[in-house]
Amino acid sequence: MAEPPLLLRSDPDPSWLPAGSRADVMLGEPPADEPTGLVRLMVLRGNEFFCMMREPDGRLDIPTRHVAEGEDPHDTAHALASVVLGPDAEVRPWGYVRNFVPTPSNDYPWPSPVACFTVWRPMSGAPVVPGLWCARIELGTRHWWPLAEQAARGPHPDKSGSQSCTNKVVADFQSRRDLDNSGIGNYICISTNRE
């Protein structure tokens, strides 16, 4: 059985979502029954991240692809990786941002009440397409940034042995939905201190 996702951070009422919403940054793979809107590919080189121009606004971001309705996000992630890293690229899910939007506004484009935006990491390989290597200064405000900080710390906790938390352990929940009304506050973090 796969490890349950770990909550890295929870932002109640973030400015980019409709009022009364929440954005959670989770380490792990989202439940299969929660729809995915975008897949992203996090390729690291030391402390830098491979970036491309994002359409339609032209901002730099890690490579991203929209998941069409009815499409398996695994297939979308593998298609994105084959373009960025070559046809033999292998990737695995690293984490995701989960929007919980109980009352969507008319201009909110994603499924509700839940939409996930996954970040994948390559097992190996280097980009085969043009792009730029960017540092934190250019990317630190992205919603997925806590996943980048976790990547800089080392292996995924489900592969790295015992963990200790500096705040509250959230790994024992039965279902992600258990947290929807839990009142868990901002900046819950999972420490990667090995024991």
UniProtKB/TrEMBL annotation:
Residues 1-31 are annotated as: Disordered. Keywords: Hydrolase. The lineage of its organism: Bacteria, Bacillati, Actinomycetota, Actinomycetes, Micrococcales. Residues 1-18 have a biased composition (Low complexity). GO terms for molecular function: hydrolase activity. It comes from Cellulomonas dongxiuzhuiae. This is NUDIX hydrolase.
